[in-house]
């Protein structure tokens, strides 16, 4: 037995590591994972809650919403779409903020993107004297079950509109 070299401690570390991991490498291989019997689309459809739209419904709704948004041509606006599975309708929410005659105007509008019908509207502008929370909207309503429900704030508008859309303005 000779004098230990600089490699001896390293060999010892690798030997200890190999002995420590040995039990994990000695198991017999597992059986391959089997393919599911049903196609993945059917599995996803069967496990998806009924109130969540399919990817196809969401994509189609987005196309209708984008087309409607381009038609109405709002300035400084953005939009979001939502397919309501219970109603089987595609909704588009359009939000705009702009300065006009020294006042800041904010509008939120809710439409059926396919039938082009308005379901709700919120319009507000600032006041030179009052604080913004003291100023009621110029217009605020959402049609629910055929009747117009009026509101007095953007929060109330969002609450009423949530019957159709699951996103806030």
Per-chain topology:
Elements: H1 8-25, H2 40-47, H3 55-72, E1 77-84, E2 89-100, E3 103-112, E4 117-125, E5 139-144, E6 147-150, H4 154-161
Antiparallel strand pairs: 1-2, 2-3, 3-4, 4-5, 5-6
Distance between the termini: 81 Å
**Rg on CA atoms, Å:** 30 Å
Helix content range: 25-40%
Strand order of the largest sheet: 1-2-3-4-5-6
Low-confidence stretches: none
> What fraction of the residues are assigned to beta strands by DSSP?
25-35%
Instruction: Please tally the helical runs, counting DSSP H or I stretches of 4 or more residues.
Output: 4
The gist of it:
This protein has 169 residues and is α+β, with helices and mostly antiparallel strands.
Explained architecture:
This protein has four helices and six strands, in the order αααββββββα. The termini are far apart. The longest helix is centred in the first third of the chain and has 18 residues, at 8-25. The chain has a six-stranded antiparallel sheet, sandwiched between helices. A hairpin with a 2-residue loop joins strand 5 (139-144) and strand 6. It is elongated. Helices cover 31% and strands 29% of the residues. With 169 residues, it is α+β, with helices and mostly antiparallel strands. The protein has helices at residues 8-25, 40-47, 55-72, 154-161, and strands spanning 77-84, 89-100, 103-112, 117-125, 139-144, 147-150.
């Amino acid at each position: 037995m000779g004098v230990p070299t600089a490699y001896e401690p390293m060999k010892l570390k690798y030997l200890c590591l190999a002995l420590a991991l040995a039990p994990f490498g000695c198991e017999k291989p597992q059986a391959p994972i089997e393919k599911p019997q049903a196609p993945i689309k059917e599995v996803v459809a069967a496990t998806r809650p009924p109130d969540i739209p399919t990817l196809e419904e969401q994509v189609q709704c987005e196309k209708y919403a984008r087309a409607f948004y381009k038609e109405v041509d709002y300035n400084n606006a953005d939009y979001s779409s939502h397919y309501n599975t219970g109603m089987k309708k595609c909704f588009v929410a359009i939000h705009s903020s702009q300065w006009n005659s020294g006042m800041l105007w904010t509008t939120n509008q809710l439409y059926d993107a396919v039938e082009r019908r308005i379901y709700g509207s919120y319009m507000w502008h600032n006041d030179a004297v009052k604080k913004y929370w003291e100023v009621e909207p110029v217009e605020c309503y959402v049609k629910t079950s055929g009747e117009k429900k009026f509101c007095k704030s953007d929060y109330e508008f969002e609450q009423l509109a949530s019957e159709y859309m699951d996103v806030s303005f």
